Amino acid sequence: MIRRDRRNHWVPTLNTFAKHKQLMQDQLELKDQARILDLGCGYGSALRFFDMHFDCAQLVWVDNNPRAITIGNRINAQKNQSHIQLAEWDIFDTDISWYDYIYIFLMPAVMPRIQARLDTHLSPHTIVIVNSFPLPDRKPIHILSNIETKSKVYLYQK
Asked: Could you tell me if 47 and 103 are in contact, meaning their C-beta atoms sit under 8 angstroms apart?
């Protein structure tokens, strides 16, 4: 899906696919009471997934698309997950320094800019969970993969 951001630019919206959710459910281990940030969350399906399958203390999703935030809030209310915090905010201005995990599923063209932000603002304890499109100049600490579905999720740490 394509949407416009505040500056009237067209921005793709990527929803986390069921095969990636299953991969994370099967292979991802998160610490208890995790604080998770979803950068560029779209409608928030990834954080609803984390809320259902992991012990999370705080779930925050950030997107610069007010329509996506509105739709996400409606979905959260319908699914009794209104405790998930939504914020309309520029993903490049978001304070990422104090989360335990940061989930990212953005287009490859954005990843160099994301990597630059992570390099300067990421806490050493934070694990970055990147769906499908790896960071361009970073070696992951671990790769979750499923040969049958050809799904990959990359884990990074400073």
From this structure: yes
* Residue 117 backbone phi and psi in degrees, to 5: -65, -45
| pLDDT tens-digit map of 35-73 | 999 998 888 889 999 999 999 999 998 988 888 888 888
CATH code of the domain occupying 31-157? 3.40.50.150
Whole-angstrom distance, CA of residue 71 vs CA of residue 31: 29
What pLDDT was estimated at residue 144? Answer: 97
Does residue 117 sit in helix, strand or coil?
helix
| CB contact set of 152 (below 8 Å; sequence gap of 6+) | 132, 134, 143, 144, 145
Tell me if the pTM is above 0.85: yes
Instruction: Name residues whose C-beta falls within 8 Å of residue 71's C-beta, 6 or more positions apart in sequence.
Output: 43
CB atoms within 10 A of CB 66: 11
The pLDDT tens digits of the residues spanning 6-37 come to 444 444 556 678 899 999 999 999 999 999 99
Delimit the domains of the chain by residue range. 31-157
Structure tokens that stand for 14 in this block: 């990527």
